[in-house]
Every structure is written in C-alpha cells, then in structure tokens.
Amino acid sequence: MTTPALLVASDLDRTLIYSAAALHLAGPDAKAPRLLCVEVYEGRPLSYLTETAAALLAELADRAAFVPATTRTRAQYQRIHLPGPPPAFAVCANGGHLLVNGVSDEDWQRTVAARLAADCAPLDEISAHLARTTDPAWLRSRRTAEDLFAYLVVERPLLPEGWVAELAGWAEERGWTVSLQGRKVYVVPRPLTKSAAVAEVARRTGATGILAAGDSLLDIDLLLAADRGWRPGHGELADTGWGAPHVTALDTRGVAAGEAIVRALLRGATEPERAC
C-alpha cells in the first residue's frame, strides 16, 4: 500500500539501471546475477538491472511514491520500462520536465522557463561557446536536450587536461554548471535541478519525507534535499569523495550497487529507523 507521506526519488542511469559497459561484473561468470533488460534502443538491449533489484523495485513502488529523476529527455526516459506500475510522477531533463501520468506538466514548464530567463545566460550563448572551443579530434557529437541544456559526447582519453575545469569556470559566471559523466560533458543551467521538481511533487502529494539516490554531480542537490540518501561506489560522487552526513556512501559498484540501493530505499520506506 502506498504511503503518501514518503517520496522515493532516484536517478536512473548508473544508479538503478546500467548499460552493458557499466555492469561491472567482476566475479566469476558462473556467479553473475541474472539480469533483466529494461530498455531497448534501435532494436538492441541497452539497460539492465538484476532480477532481484527488479523484484525489490516493484515492491518499493507498492510501498511508497517512487519518482524517477533523470537527466534524460522525455523520449529517452520513455524507452525505459521499469518493474511495477508506471510512476505517477517522473522528473526528466534534470528537472526541466515534470511528467504527470506520462505527460509534461505545462504549469511546471512555465515555472522553469521563468527561472531560467531570470537567472541564466541563454542556451544559444552556451552552444556557440561550445562550438568555438571543442575540437573534432576528441569531440564525437554536440547536442542540446529539450531546448534546456547542452551536452557533448567526447573521446574522454583525448580530452585536453584542464578543459572541463576551464569550461566550468566560464559557465559558472553565466549561471550554468558543468558535469563530466563517462563520455558525456553536460552543461546545465544552475536553476534546472532535480530537487526543485521533486519538491514540487512533494508539495502536490503532501509528502513530508524524501529518500533519494544518485551517482553524479547533477544529483547533489537531490541528495542534499532528501532526508536520507545513498550513492554507489562508482560515478562522479565516488570519484570526488563527495559526501554528506545523511548520505550513505556504498562501496558496491556497477549493477550490484543498483541492487543494494533499491534494497536500502525499500528498507528506508518500510523501516525508517533501520535504513542504512
């Protein structure tokens, strides 16, 4: 039975679901966990979680209001088919879109647009700067998402030392933030946050508590806004050693970390005093 007083908000990629390259199946093949494919792209399986995590996630969705919170666009998110009933709310584009029963909420779109116009340089300025400062020697593609933020796909080993830090300094002066995640460099307006969208869900549902999980710098605001949080043993947060008193840093990496996170979220939703 759903508990309206509690929201469970989690990042997806490399937190709950994993590409084949991110599974980190380090043990013997004979002991590898059974996997469930939850995303297909262009006719090929793309993202997975363990079957155990799938069962736990379905139970979690029955125990609390589960809110996926992702930097993915709406189209990218809608390729994912998680176990359990479709979430009533989902956060896409790093908070740029709040989906209500699968449809982007127009009131939230207007709120986001007003905040960005007031506090940030326009996306066109960011895109033009990226076009001037990137090099085809290491740039695979340059894209924008939902007309809200920009990201690059790069050959990370060839990325010049200091380039990301220089970009971050330039972006900060214009109200934007930079996050390096695997082969992608995200440039995102500072007010465009998962936590703001999740807070809106809490307001609409009357929730008084939030549990959260995430692995990247773009998840920090979500984790800080939660009552309890969890991060895996991989990703930007682990690489930088980021932590907070109420955020549990797991040692587990890869798809096993996804399973551990779902287990912790479920424990937190059902037995708050034992959550760890």
> Rg to the nearest angstrom?
18 Å
Shape type? globular
β-strand percent reads 25-35%
Major beta sheet summary: 5 strands, parallel
How many individual helices? 9
Number of strands: 15
Low-confidence stretches: none
Numbering strands along the chain, what is their spatial order in the largest sheet?
Answer: 5-1-13-14-15
The SS-based structural class is alpha/beta
Helix content: 25-40%
Average pLDDT confidence is 94
**Ends distance:** 22 Å
Instruction: Note the run of SSEs as H and E.
Output: EEEEHEHEEEHHEEHEEHEHEHEH
Structural features, described:
The chain is an alpha/beta fold. It has helices spanning 51-63, 74-77, 106-119, 123-133, 163-172, 194-205, 220-225, 236-240, 254-270, and strands at 3-10, 18-19, 35-41, 44-50, 64-68, 89-92, 97-100, 103-104, 139-145, 149-154, 176-181, 184-189, 209-213, 228-231, 247-249. The strands form four sheets. The chain has a five-stranded parallel sheet, sandwiched between helices. Strands 9-10-12-11 form a four-stranded antiparallel sheet. A three-stranded antiparallel sheet has the order 2-4-3. Helix 1 runs parallel beside helix 9. The longest helix is centred in the last third of the chain and has 17 residues, at 254-270. The chain is globular. The chain starts with a strand and ends in a 6-residue tail after the last helix.
